[in-house]
TrEMBL record, chain A:
Family: Belongs to the TRM112 family.
Name of the protein this chain belongs to: Trm112p-like protein
CDD domains: Trm112-like
Quaternary structure annotation from Swiss-Prot or TrEMBL: Interacts with TRM9.
Pfam families documented for this protein: Trm112p (PF03966)
GO molecular function: protein heterodimerization activity
The organism of origin for this protein: Ensete ventricosum
GO BP annotation list: rRNA (guanine-N7)-methylation; tRNA methylation
Gene3D superfamilies hit by this protein: 2.20.25.10
Automatic annotation (TrEMBL), chain B:
An example Gene Ontology molecular-function term: tRNA (5-carboxymethyluridine(34)-5-O)-methyltransferase activity
Cellular component, GO, one term: cytoplasm
Highest taxon listed in the record's lineage: Eukaryota
The protein's name: Methyltransferase type 11 domain-containing protein
Ranges of Polar residues composition bias in the record: 87-100
Statement: the UniProt record of this protein carries the keyword Transferase: yes
Ranges of residues in domain Methyltransferase type: 163-253
Record-linked PANTHER family: ALKYLATED DNA REPAIR PROTEIN ALKB HOMOLOG 8 (PTHR13069)
Assigned keywords, A-Z: Methyltransferase, Transferase
Keyword Transport: no
Species name: Ensete ventricosum
A Pfam family this chain is assigned to: Methyltransf_11
Matching InterPro entries: AlkB_tRNA_MeTrf/Diox, Methyltransf_11, SAM-dependent_MTases_sf
GO terms classed as biological process: tRNA methylation; tRNA wobble uridine modification
Length: 122, 436
């Protein structure tokens, strides 16, 4: 699971008012280099909830992201590199995601989050 | 009096029938008590009942398959029966098009708050479990990219985030290398195949996507919605696709169509809604002997397979299923009604009913059946049958095939989605929506 994907995930249990962002606990992760695409980063930046990204990055030990970010920073190559690394190059293999409201745990196994709910949660 | 009962199979109970009065209470006991049915598989039960030709006029009744006795108390069973029956019945209206009827409940007006996001048993058994069992084999046959889907994906701007809900083996993930794809599917087995190809995927339910609003640039739902067994769930899945894309985002949906291009493969399918009525079915009718209505053995494969003995079951399956996927289906009644004067399954008033609920078989060759996977216990649990003649296990997948205009009708209730394109392509109904 990349942190880009994590930035989209939300707990959808019935009755939960705000299931985003899911708190990440990572037990195992890998880093895989991939080519930086500045256009893509500029396109996706407005979609990203920055605090959630920064928090998830810290959970995998990457603390190079600023606490806050604005579009002006996209002109900086250094910022782009950090943004790119956090968003696309970190893959959480084993761990869990926790709903901020209910604490409900969603497991991540072999890089795959299991977001299925139980009968009583829908 | 006719009582409509929903779920695995549809039928009408005729209380004046001796088999009904003797069998029904026992079956009710089985259901309420959570006991397995006296037949190994629901489809076999269907064919066994239909084999009773003397009682052929009465309608058989198949009760809900109860997966686990402890899961349901009687109230919840009753509740589920109602909620799932409410959208499971189509009947012809005066114009001959299908519409949803209110449930005829023997339980009065009990209120039911069962969520539409709760998975009906027919999907659990004949979609989820089947795909988990056949995943590797199924995946090996899913490689051709449909041109219309390809052109949609290629039309999206560079850098788009594309959400594939019901991605299967991930056939379209990464198709457009300029875009970022995120896939989900209900089948862990299929998702593992996606993940092994380094895609960003998760196990999730298309009826309840675990995504926040407005994130994607586009979403696709390719041959997914026809596995949802109620109209409410199908509509909810479309609402989810619209919810998760940004304003102005596009959604492509394709589903199998009732209206076929090539009428040659119908007999491979089992229709799930049978009506027998004394006025319609005469003793001399060929209906009872029609192999279409029986599932005791899978008929011979396509002509091309029969003639070419070198073709393996696997190749035949691929040919068959690719043809099916390109949508060759006819209404089950066509072959029947042609044998008799007048219409057998249609009221004499001339109203027509379109068969939309089917089991579509999947042949999993023995040498492809995973030893430690779901297929190992499939025969014991009745999920599959063995066909030694073909050297394959036969699974059934549930389908609700769509009629012309049905997608549009589902979308019409969604305020923030407008139709930007709609077309019929290789026996699929397709629609492109834009979120406003």
């Amino acid at each position: 699971m990349r942190l880009l994907t994590h930035n989209m995930l939300s707990c959808n249990i019935k009755g939960v008012a705000n299931g985003f962002p899911l708190r990440l606990e990572a037990e195992k992760w890998v880093e895989k280099e991939v080519e930086l695409n500045a256009d893509f980063l500029r396109h996706i930046f407005p979609k990203i909830e920055w605090k959630a990204l920064a928090g998830a990055a810290r959970a995998v030990g990457y603390c190079e992201l600023p606490e806050e970010a604005d579009a002006a920073m996209l002109d900086s190559e250094d910022f782009l590199r950090r943004f790119h690394h956090a968003l696309l190059e970190i893959h959480v293999e084993e761990g869990a995601l926790f709903c901020p409201e209910t604490g409900r745990r969603f497991s991540i196994t072999k890089g795959i989050p299991n977001m299925l709910l139980r009968e009583d949660e829908v | 009096m006719r009582i409509k009962v929903s779920d695995a199979f549809y039928g009408w109970i005729r209380p004046d029938n001796i088999v009904f009065t003797s069998v029904f209470p026992f079956l009710v006991y089985c259901v309420v008590g959570g006991l397995p049915f006296p037949a190994p598989t629901a489809p076999r039960f269907l064919s066994d009942l239909q084999g009773h030709s003397e009682q052929g006029r009465w309608s058989f009744m198949i009760l809900r398959f109860v997966g686990s006795a402890s899961k349901y108390n009687q109230e919840s069973l009753q509740c589920q029966r109602e909620s799932h029956s409410s959208a499971d019945f189509s009947s012809a209206n005066a114009n001959g098009s299908s519409e949803i009827t209110e449930p005829v409940s023997p339980h009065g007006d009990s209120t039911c708050s069962l969520s539409i996001q709760s998975t009906p048993d027919i999907e659990k058994k004949y979609v989820h479990r089947v795909y988990d069992a056949i995943a590797p084999h199924f995946s090996s046959t899913r490689f051709a990219k449909w041109p219309k889907v390809a052109s949609f994906l290629n039309s999206l701007r560079q850098g788009s985030v594309i959400l594939d809900a019901g991605c299967g083996n991930g056939k379209y993930l990464g198709f457009n290398p300029d875009c970022f794809y995120i896939g989900c599917d209900i089948s862990p087995s299929l998702i593992e195949i996606c993940a092994s190809r380094c895609h960003d995927v998760m196990v999730a339910d298309a009826v309840n996507l675990p995504y926040r609003d407005n994130f994607g640039d586009a979403a696709i739902s390719i041959a997914v919605l026809h596995h949802l067994s109620t109209e409410m769930r199908r509509r909810k899945a479309i609402e989810e696709l619209v919810r998760v894309v940004q304003k102005g985002g596009l959604v492509l949906i394709t589903v199998w169509a009732v209206e076929q291009e090539d009428k040659s493969l119908l007999t491979k399918w089992t229709p799930l809604f049978h009506k027998y009525d004394e006025e319609w079915v005469k003793p001399s009718s060929p209906v009872r002997n029609n192999p279409v209505n029986k599932l005791e053995s899978i008929p011979e494969l396509d002509e091309s397979c029969r003639q070419d003995t070198k073709l393996t079951t696997q190749t035949c399956n691929e040919l068959l299923d690719d043809k099916l996927e390109s949508m060759d289906r006819i209404m089950v009644d066509a072959s029947i009604s042609s044998a008799t004067t007048g219409s057998l399954l249609y009221p004499s008033s001339g109203q027509t009913e379109t068969q939309q609920e089917y089991f579509v078989p999947w042949h999993l060759p023995y040498h492809r059946a995973e030893i430690n996977g779901a297929s190992a216990s499939a025969v014991e649990t009745g999920l599959a049958k063995k066909d030694d003649k073909k050297g394959a296990m036969v699974y059934n997948r549930y389908y609700h095939v769509f009629v012309e205009g049905e997608l549009q009708r589902l979308v019409s209730g969604i305020d923030n989605a407008s139709i930007v394109d709609q077309f019929y392509d290789k026996s699929n109904w397709c629609i492109i929506l834009q979120k406003s």
